[in-house]
Amino acid sequence: MTEHTTHPVVVVGSGHAGVAVAAGLRTRGWAGRVVLVDAQHDVPYERPPLSKDLLASGAGDRAAPLRKEDWYEAKGIERVTGQAVDSIDRDARAVILSDGSRLPYHRLVLATGSRARELPVPGADLDGVLALRTHQDGLAIKQSLVPGARVVVIGAGFIGMEVAAAAVKNGCAVTVLEFQDRVMKRVTSPPVSAFFERLHRSQGLRLEFGAAVTELQGDGRVERVLTSDGRTFEADVVVAGIGVLPNQELAEAAGLACQDGILVNEQCRTTDPCIYAAGDVTRFTSPFSGASQRLESIQNATAQAEAVVDDVLDHEVKPSEVPWFWTVQHGVRLQTAGVMHPDDEVVVRGDPERGKFSVVYLREGRLAAVDTIGGLADFRPAKKLISTGLLLDPARVADPGVKLEDAVIGTGPRPGAYETAAALV
Amino acid sequence: MSNNTLNVIDRDGRQHAVEWEPEQSLMEALRDNDLPVLASCGGTASCATCHVFLDGDVVESLGERSEDEAELLVDAEGFREDCSRLSCQVEFEDRLDGITVTLAPEEE
């Protein structure tokens, strides 16, 4: 244990994953040093509100802290702020900071997160072209969402639609340009997209599909957005929400295996046994579907952080939690458990017209994912069914009067889900 | 506004005197004092991992739960209509000084 007390666990990045690792190590008894390195100076803060409550005019500008400022010192967590990690010396087990100093590590945790993908078109660097990732980004967007402003949002994913909703609410004239044929296509099914399209349009949003942006034009500041079908959209401000890229360069340069994300196993270990990665930056195999995935969510960040802490402390890593996600748009919550696939059988429970329904995704007769819209009643039962992998009767699943757990017709467990399934029957 | 002091009872029945600062939600006060409150959704009433029990009259004085909170709580471990709240949804108020907060059982 001497090494533990002399050499620290160094955590790079203080988003949800990084702070959860530091907090978990401390509260669960790690006696050695814990160093949290962050290129930013802010007190680490919650990210979900940045695209939601923060943008509302009249709401406060504060970003809720993950822990209050003096907590870190009180817990003996050393914060190194305003410094990036430039490189990793794996042989010597040290990181080199941007001021040239070296920081030795016993274990290294890369929680470097992701960054907004930039528009790959001319004019993307004009003033007034914004993206949302940090608190500062959020404040810049909020300031530009003034009544009457012509706002063009590029991309109809969670971030784009949340920003569009806030902009409409703040009195802006808002257009969303989406290359695909419906909103949130990557993560949900047509009935859910259709519901949210109706909701947004009823509030005054203009939605344009099949709109591939080719250029942004303006004299220093953005004035218009051009699309491949020859149309022009006047804009005072443009917000791009076209996905994120994992911040994996540090790992790549150190020779760790990366493939659109740092590759990690169930213990969140990279290909170097002394180096872990957690959060948005990782790619891993889903224990539920076997698919290789990168999950950009607070749930994944927190769960992976816990796995890191368990493994560093030589505890057994707990079985994975079913991943879950949420978005809130015009006050309507879409909460999802599991990851849907376009080939899944889509079963709608309840009546979308009433603003409250669920969509269940069945794969080989088993629950693979659920979307709950405007109500959470099916959320936890569905999440449980995803992890147990029991066979369901689609006809009963479609009847909102039948509880999901009462639609179980057998075990037929997937490999790996057998024990849990057997225990339930 | 000065800080409130909470009497927190953890899942092992141990008592803790916890400082609650005016800027914090009740969940943040618990989390900053290392009580095992996961708050895995970051305080947005999307999970039930910050579920606590408060005295019935305190819960009554806090007013109606939002629809999301109510639906999450109904299914939560140990839910009690008269006592259960998600602590992320309870904002600081001077009058809540000295209240007792009991952590609800952990979700499976």
From TrEMBL, chain A:
One annotated GO molecular function: oxidoreductase activity, acting on NAD(P)H
Pfam families to which the protein is assigned, alphabetical: Pyr_redox_2, Reductase_C
Record-annotated Reductase C-terminal domain positions: 324-407
Entry-linked InterPro entries: FAD-oxidoreductase/Apoptosis, FAD/NAD-bd_sf, FAD/NAD-binding_dom, FAD/NAD-linked_Rdtase_dimer_sf, Reductase_C
Coiled coil regions, renumbered to chain: none
Co-factor(s): FAD
Signal peptide: none
Superkingdom classification of source: Bacteria
Keywords in alphabetical order: FAD, Flavoprotein, Oxidoreductase
Domain FAD/NAD(P)-binding positions: 8-305
One GO cellular component term noted in the UniProt record for this chain: cytoplasm
Matches recorded under PANTHER family: APOPTOSIS-INDUCING FACTOR 1, RIESKE DOMAIN-CONTAINING PROTEIN-RELATED
Name of the protein in question: Ferredoxin reductase
Organism classification: Bacteria, Bacillati, Actinomycetota, Actinomycetes, Micrococcales
Automatic annotation (TrEMBL), chain B:
Cofactor(s) listed: [2Fe-2S] cluster
Single GO molecular function: electron transfer activity
A Pfam family: Fer2
CDD domains xrefs: fer2 (cd00207)
Keyword line: 2Fe-2S, Iron, Iron-sulfur, Metal-binding
Name under which the protein is recorded: Ferredoxin
Origin superkingdom: Bacteria
Domain 2Fe-2S ferredoxin-type, first and last residues per copy: 4-107
PANTHER family in the cross-refs: FERREDOXIN-2, MITOCHONDRIAL, FERREDOXIN/ADRENODOXIN
PROSITE patterns according to UniProt: 2FE2S_FER_2 (PS51085), ADX (PS00814)
Any one of the GO BP annotations: P450-containing electron transport chain
Protein family membership: Belongs to the adrenodoxin/putidaredoxin family.
InterPro entries on file: 2Fe-2S_ferredoxin-like_sf, 2Fe-2S_ferredoxin-type, Adrenodoxin-like, Adrenodoxin_Fe-S_BS, Beta-grasp_dom_sf
